[in-house]
Amino acid sequence: MSGISGGVDALVVVTLVLVTAAATAAALTRDPVRQAAVLSGLGLCLALLFLAVQAPDVALSQLAVGTAFTPLLILLTVRKVRRSGRGEASGDGGARGKGDARGDRGAGTARRGGGR
Amino acid sequence: MNAWLISASVLLAAGMGPCLWRACRGDPAQRLLGITLGSAVAIAASLLIARGVERTSYVDVALVLAVLSPAGTLVFCRCLAGAGRPRAGNAPAGRGRTEGS
Amino acid sequence: MEARHAVVLALLFGGLAMLLLSAVALLVLPGPYQRLHALAPATSLGLPLLCLALAVDTGPGRSAVKFLVIAALAAASSPVVGIAIGRTIVESTLEEGASGAESEPPA
């Protein structure tokens, strides 16, 4: 039993280091599309950490949320913002003020992501 | 400290690092490579952990991951192909415009 | 029993070596199309070998079938995901080339 506990301790240390590295990288990434990719990797490492501390149900829900739902929501939001910005630039969506501000910022992000 | 847990630790330490490094650098399309290989490494590691701690119910995590990770990657590809397009001449852009107006 | 243990260890180390080789290949290969090939050994050879080792270790039964199902899922979804990622890389490269920075031709 102590042998298994030693192996689990090594596993927890390794996954903690991975989670720390992935979370730092996710915090330092600026572009939302690239951040979605890093967040997917962070969700994977976090699910492995939950599995290593013997909580498989939390690992299951973290897999479903962190691998599939969060990047999908981020990508859909970025797509919607860029499209509303493009529609506002071509002249058929200029009736709402808040939408214009968001569209301008989204277009700026698109230009910065394309130029990098 | 049995062989399965040692294998899982070595696999995570040496195999997950390059995947995270690839997922953190470069073009958004190339980060998908790191995510895909990272999910394969995570499937292997969860199988090894399930065998190492003698709990067969942990295999379900690997099964869910094997089902969810290709679906997530395909959804990622689909959204990425539609999001980075500067010109509005293809079918998804037209559909989005009709539902926006 | 001893021969079975040796077979399990051989399959386990083979699968582990394939996964680590794939990770090293992802790290050192230059260019996106070369890195796309680094996914193949892990999902089509490494994971099935590992699942085969676990299935041989547990013996015949329902859990062995579950391991083999996981291996089949990973091996079947790998080409589909590879094709989708390759198409996304081609599209993004063409888009960059249209905006002025042509890096390398596809394939």
Automatic annotation (TrEMBL), chain B:
UniProt keywords, alphabetically: Cell membrane, Membrane, Transmembrane, Transmembrane helix
Transmembrane among keywords: yes
Transmembrane stretches in the record are 32-50, 57-76
Localization per record? Cell membrane
**Pfam families linked:** MrpF_PhaF (PF04066)
Q: Which domain of life is it from?
A: Bacteria
How this chain sits in the membrane, per its record, is: Multi-pass membrane protein
The protein, known as = Multisubunit Na+/H+ antiporter MnhF subunit
Organism of provenance: Actinacidiphila acidipaludis
From TrEMBL, chain C:
Span-the-membrane segments of this chain are: 6-29, 36-55, 67-86
**Which branch of life, at top level?**
Bacteria
Asked if Transmembrane helix is a keyword of the record, the answer is: yes
Q: Which Pfam families match?
A: PhaG_MnhG_YufB
Q: What is this protein called?
A: Monovalent cation/H(+) antiporter subunit G
Key words of the record = Membrane, Transmembrane, Transmembrane helix
